[in-house]
């Protein structure tokens, strides 16, 4: 296999006539507009998932057909949530169980495969998924389910460096794609259901040496390594006990499990943080900073520059991890440097990305019960106290608090699946879901490596006909411009193109293409298993290609209660599908 891989690569290089050049910082910053490669998660570090290509468009897309399909193989399948990357005729794509594959983009032949040897005791909360690699120089870098960063040689798949980011035995894991900014690989950590401490860390991408660390629970100090010395890099206003009672901050959660985006305009990293731990909010009165927030971080030092908390004192596991996507718009003749995010809690927020100021917020789902609305000045939710799950201490035996029917469910108005922003329509395309949950609190105490929820729940559909809704949202007005419903919950990302198209996948297996302006379905192809990954598009030899990973799984079958029953007939898989127009 190895011999074959090398010869295939040499042959590929001979065809293009150039040796494979390493990925540079410039390549990554310019990724969105350079159509010949995909070298960042999000199709550009801002995470817009927009391509300026238009060869595949509303007129031509009907002729688009698969040119190759690559199977991950193996006995174990499960959810495939990866976004592939493409550089110099090679695709780098991750699969379940911390696997990485390099595939020839012309033929679909495997060049190499890397399998992380995972210990028995890993504790991924929400399936054994991975969301993709980062590329830098001649390295392919990804995070593993046992909370390591691994850098592989892009040509051979051999390990160049490996770093333990955290202790998997305490519940840490990594599933997000890392990003590379100014030569540093930036990662978050998963584990919010185990009372871990969320953090964002930067490592020298070439050597794996730690550059800075930034915990996301108030009270924990961050550090930067400068000239061989460890120096504090000040958490803004952070102080143990200020927004947390007693020692609860010591196991406070706020996991940065979905990774982040970067905006070069304001030179800030944007990472989201998950739920405060435990879920039972009566055990931790206060805002519980920086949980369920977006934090803007200086990429050079790790300092938190601003934060915006979507669900202060979260009592529903709404997390706050969803991606913050930078975009500009015109208002009163001026350009507004904005960023938007569609939160698990059902509200979409438009912020000033320079300082985190709230510009506007609006629901993007049909029903929200936990809040009456948002404060128009600050964006802080106006709580409906009757919809907070009750305190077990108020019950007769102290074992179960009042159960409430909360909407959305904790799986969210939108979960991890990334939105897309079209520079042509000015709309956000939001893969969303309509579901509710019965949720109640129970007593709990922190124990290293054990689930730390203090809550029970059952997730329920809101409608018989559909759960998933792909929505076109106008960030200037808060209005839904169109919607397309789907029977099963949507769990994969969206992509828009200059060809006036929106692409996304469904658990039923379809890759769909819609007219971005109207929502009209103009393309449909079944990939044989549910799609929970995010499509990409790129150009090769003058032709536009599109790829998406197919393989049903993720959190829904594991946590979805009554919804899981509705989708239990869906088959697992693990295949990269690649499409183009006929020549
Ligand atoms: Ca590019
Ligand atoms: Ca959570």
Describe this structure in words.
This protein is mainly β. The protein has a single domain, classed as 8 Propeller (Methanol Dehydrogenase, Chain A), CATH 2.140.10.10. Helix content is 5%, strand content 36%. It has a 6-stranded antiparallel beta sheet. A 5-stranded mixed beta sheet has the order 1-34-35-36-37, with no helix packed on it. A 4-stranded antiparallel beta sheet has the order 2-40-39-38, with no helix packed on it. Strand 23 and strand 24 (358-363) form a beta hairpin. The longest helix has 15 residues, at 2-16. It is globular and about 70 Å long. Residues 192-193, 274-275, 317, 319 line the site of one calcium ion (CA).
Topology:
Elements lengths: L1 H15 L8 H5 L20 E2 L13 E7 L13 E3 L2 E6 L3 E6 L5 E6 L18 E3 L2 E5 L4 E6 L5 E6 L14 E3 L2 E4 L11 E6 L5 E6 L7 E4 L2 E4 L27 E4 L4 E5 L20 E5 L6 E6 L15 E7 L2 E9 L4 E6 L5 E6 L7 E4 L6 E3 L20 E3 L13 E2 L6 E6 L1 E7 L13 E7 L6 E6 L6 E7 L7 E4 L3 E5 L4 E6 L5 E6 L9 E5 L2 E8 L4 H5 L2 H5 L8 E6 L3
The chain binds calcium ion (CA) (2 copies).
- N-end to C-end Cα span: 32 Å
Based on Cα principal axes, name the global outline: globular
Bound molecules: calcium ion
Mean pLDDT: 95
Q: Give the CATH superfamily.
A: Quinoprotein alcohol dehydrogenase-like superfamily
> Mind telling me the CATH class?
Mainly Beta
Content-based structural category = mainly beta
Radius of gyration (Å)? 22 Å
Tell me the count of domains.
Answer: 1
């Amino acid at each position: 296999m190895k011999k074959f891989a090398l010869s295939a690569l040499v042959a590929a290089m001979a065809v293009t006539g150039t040796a494979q050049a390493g990925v540079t910082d410039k390549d990554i910053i310019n990724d969105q507009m350079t159509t010949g490669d995909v070298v960042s998660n999000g199709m550009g570090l801002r995470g817009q998932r927009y391509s300026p290509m238009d060869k595949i468009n509303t007129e031509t897309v009907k002729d688009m057909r698969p040119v190759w399909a690559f199977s991950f193989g193996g006995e174990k399948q499960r959810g495939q949530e990866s976004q592939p990357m493409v550089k110099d005729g090679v695709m780098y794509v991750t699969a379940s169980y911390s696997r990485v594959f390099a595939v020839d983009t012309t033929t679909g032949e495997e060049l190499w495969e890397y399998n992380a040897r995972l210990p028995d005791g890993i504790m991924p909360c929400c399936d054994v998924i991975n969301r993709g690699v980062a590329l830098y120089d001649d390295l392919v870098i990804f995070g593993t389910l046992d909370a390591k960063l691994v850098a592989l040689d892009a040509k051979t798949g051999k390990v160049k460096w490996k770093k333990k980011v955290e202790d998997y035995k305490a519940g840490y894991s990594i599933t997000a794609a890392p990003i590379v900014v100014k030569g540093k690989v930036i990662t978050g950590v998963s584990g919010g259901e185990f009372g871990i401490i969320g953090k964002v860390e930067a490592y020298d991408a070439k050597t794996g040496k730690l550059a800075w660390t930034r915990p996301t629970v108030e009270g924990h100090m961050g550090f930067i390594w400068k000239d061989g010395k460890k120096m504090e890099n000040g958490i803004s206003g952070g102080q143990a006990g200020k927004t947390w009672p007693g020692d609860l901050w010591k196991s406070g959660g706020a996991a940065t499990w979905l990774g982040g985006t970067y905006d070069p305009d304001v030179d800030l990293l944007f990472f989201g943080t998950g739920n405060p731990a435990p879920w039972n909010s009566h055990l931790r009165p206060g805002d519980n900073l920086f949980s369920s927030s977006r934090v803007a971080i200086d990429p050079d030092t790790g300092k938190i520059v601003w934060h915006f908390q979507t669900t202060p004192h979260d009592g529903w596991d709404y997390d706050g991890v969803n991606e913050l996507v930078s975009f500009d718009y015109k208002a009163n003749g001026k350009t507004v440097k904005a960023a938007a995010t569609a939160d698990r809690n059902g509200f979409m927020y438009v912020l000033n990305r320079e300082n985190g100021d709230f510009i506007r917020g609006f629901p993007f789902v049909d029903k929200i019960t936990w809040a009456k609305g948002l404060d128009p000045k600050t964006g802080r939710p106006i709580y409906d106290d009757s919809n907070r799950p009750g305190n077990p201490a108020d019950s007769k035996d102290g074992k179960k608090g009042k159960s409430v029917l909360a909407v959305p469910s904790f799986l969210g108005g939108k979960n991890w699946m990334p939105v897309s922003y079209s520079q042509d329509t000015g709309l956000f395309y939001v893969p969303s879901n309509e579901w509710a949950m019965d949720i109640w609190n129970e007593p709990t105490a922190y124990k290293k490596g054990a689930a730390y929820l203090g809550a029970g729940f059952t997730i329920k559909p809101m409608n018989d006909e559909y759960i998933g809704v792909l929505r076109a949202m106008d960030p200037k007005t808060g209005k839904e411009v169109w919607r397309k419903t789907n029977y099963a919950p949507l769990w994969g990302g969206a992509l828009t193109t200059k060809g006036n198209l929106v692409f996304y996948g469904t658990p039923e297996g379809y890759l769909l293409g819609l007219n971005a302006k109207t929502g009209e379905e103009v393309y449909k192809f079944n990939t044989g298993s549910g799609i929970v990954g995010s499509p990409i598009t790129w150009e090769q030899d003058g032709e536009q290609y599109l790829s998406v990973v197919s393989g049903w799984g993720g959190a829904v079958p594991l946590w979805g209660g009554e919804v899981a029953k509705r989708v239990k007939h869906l088959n697992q898989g693990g295949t990269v599908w690649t499409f183009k127009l006929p020549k």
